[in-house]
Amino acid sequence: MAPQIVENSSAGAVVTALRADCEIARGCAGVLPLHSKKQLLLIFLHDVCIIARIDRSACTFLSPRSMTESSTFTEPWTRTARFERFDGHHSPVLRWQPHGGARAHAIFFPPYGDEMNQARRMYRLTAEALAAAGIGACLFDLMGTGDSTAGFELASVQAWLDDCSTIVEPLARQSVPLVFIGCRLGAALAARTSRVLDRPVDLLVGWAALWKGAQQLSGLLRAARMARLTRAQGSDATPADPKGCWARGASARLAGYPVSARLAAELDALDATEAPRARRAALFDVRAFGPEDAGAPGDALRARADAWSQRGVATDARAVDAPAFWNVVDLVDAPALVDATVRAVRSAVSTEAVAPVGGDA
């Protein structure tokens, strides 16, 4: 009998799950056997609690919305999770495969640090909506982030770009349309990655994009400076100045992460303002509209769209009424952004080419 997999969106009640003899895969982080012989496996992967049967290095599971008490599944797609090899580390890669084959591939480029953790749910919701529309999706962890086997102190912008290329290049060799989606710094990584491919991306989507790494770094340094000023007024030891740490060749802890001198320098140098190698782009100004907000995109975003359009990339800029989900304490959803993204993707991709079921999607 083929393995049956059940997913649950919380660690609470499990409606129905398969009890089966299981072999725990080495390198699959967060695996907890619940029974000694016939086992259920409780796996925490990308903040999702799932019940699954592990088959060596891979596990397959379905959407929590597809689970019922009778263990019937209605979603038109399957999601797989696998630890895959990158240069210098292994990281989990989640792929959504439409049952009828993918008519396009969407790759989600992670933002920086805790913004990645907060944006992960929105990525998952958008991937599910795209998969339901017949578009395969892929989400992965960059070196040193998430569940990567490397430590953050080894992270660099160049390593992240290499990881992006590792994920994208096999998909780019297929004949179906290719879509890049990036939130914050992830949009810059997506734009830079598009320029190393042998074919143009059919659509690049940016959510509240940061096109320069210096914007990310300056925000981190500003927060560190405020923390030093606050602690200087109290009894705690004042944190070390990050630039002083980098001058000594040491890492500086910013927003809870050990940022190396190399990562800081590469962030400062990262510039993705040049038009991507893409046929179209959809840029979203994500903000909560005020009572008198006209709902127009900001001046900087409109200028970016105009500049890219003049360079041959048809670029649409629009504002979406949604919270800053990447920078809040509690997880929040932005359904308007999911809907707008799905509409942009569907209008950009061809319905003719379909990747075979079982391909990397």
Describe it.
This protein is of the alpha/beta class. The protein has three domains: about 1-60, no CATH class; about 75-210 and about 270-350, Alpha/Beta hydrolase fold, catalytic domain (Rossmann fold, 3-Layer(aba) Sandwich); about 215-250, no CATH class. Helix content is about 30%, strand content about 25%. It contains eight helices and 18 strands. The strands form four sheets. The chain has a ten-stranded mixed sheet, with helices on both faces. Helix 1 (about 115-130) packs across helix 8, helix 2 (about 155-170) crosses helix 3 and helix 4 (about 215-230) crosses helix 6 (about 260-270). The longest helix has 20 residues, at about 115-130. It is globular, with a radius of gyration of 21 Å. It starts with 5 loop residues before the first strand and ends in a 13-residue tail after the last helix. The relative contact order is 0.13. Residues about 1-70 and about 355-360 have low confidence and may be disordered.
